[in-house]
């Protein structure tokens, strides 16, 4: 009799699936009986189970040191020298000015490039204007939790 019940239970678990099926389902389940103040903790737990790309930096935040350099082939290389977060950088949207940083105003950063990062923390983008750029501003950075 115990073996039959155990077999039925195993079959039920296989059919219904074990664990959560999505990030949202995980958050809802983790929040049962919890105070609203625990939502960010539940989201972090579920994000580790269901990683996804999200914006982890905007031009108003800190936590990154992204440096840039020009190459001889009309391209710009971006490298993450520091990353003080739990996220692996996947993409960065950068704005460039043809004026020096001291002379540049917000409206001068009208050249936008998007960089896709590999596992080495580096990215390269090609543009005919690469040699004209003199200053860079980080617009937004995206990543996936490690």
Spatial arrangement of strands, main beta sheet: 1-7-4-5
Indicate the CATH topology of the largest domain: Immunoglobulin-like
Low-confidence stretches: 12-17
Q: How many structural domains can be distinguished in the coordinates?
A: 2
Percent of sequence in beta strands = 35-45%
Mean pLDDT: 86
| H/E series | HHHEEEEEEE
Using DSSP, what is the number of strands? 7
Distance between the termini: 46 Å
Which shape, going by the Cα principal axes? elongated
Structural class: alpha+beta
The percentage helix is 10-25%
Number of helices: 3
Radius of gyration, in Å, reads 23 Å
Largest sheet: 4 strands, antiparallel
CATH architecture title of the largest domain: Sandwich
Can you tell me about this structure?
- The protein has 146 residues and is α+β, with helices and mostly antiparallel strands.
- It folds into 2 domains: 2-49, no CATH class; 54-145, Sandwich (Immunoglobulin-like), CATH 2.60.40.
- It has helices at residues 2-16, 23-31, 39-49, and strands at 54-58, 64-70, 75-83, 87-97, 111-116, 122-126, 135-145.
- Strands 1-7-4-5 form a 4-stranded antiparallel sheet, with no helix packed on it. A 3-stranded antiparallel sheet has the order 2-3-6, with no helix packed on it.
- Helix 2 runs antiparallel to helix 3.
- The radius of gyration is 23 Å and the shape is elongated.
- Residues 12-17 have low confidence and may be disordered.
Strands, helices and their partners?
Blueprint: H1 2-16, H2 23-31, H3 39-49, E1 54-58, E2 64-70, E3 75-83, E4 87-97, E5 111-116, E6 122-126, E7 135-145
Antiparallel strand pairs: 1-7, 2-3, 3-6, 4-5, 4-7
Helix pairs in contact: 2-3
């Amino acid at each position: 009799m115990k073996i039959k019940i155990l077999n039925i239970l195993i079959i039920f678990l296989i059919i219904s699936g074990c664990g959560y099926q999505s990030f949202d389902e995980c958050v809802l389940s983790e929040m049962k009986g919890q105070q609203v103040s625990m939502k960010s903790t539940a989201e972090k737990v579920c994000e580790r189970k269901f990683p996804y790309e999200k914006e982890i930096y905007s031009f108003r935040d800190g936590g990154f040191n992204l440096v840039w350099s020009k190459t001889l082939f009309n391209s710009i290389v971006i490298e993450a020298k520091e990353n003080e977060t739990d996220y692996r950088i996947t993409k960065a949207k950068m704005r460039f000015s043809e004026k020096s940083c001291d002379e540049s105003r917000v409206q001068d950063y009208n050249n936008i490039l998007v960089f896709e990062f590999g596992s080495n923390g580096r990215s390269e983008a090609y543009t005919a204007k690469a040699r004209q750029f003199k200053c860079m501003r980080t617009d937004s950075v995206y990543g996936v939790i490690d």
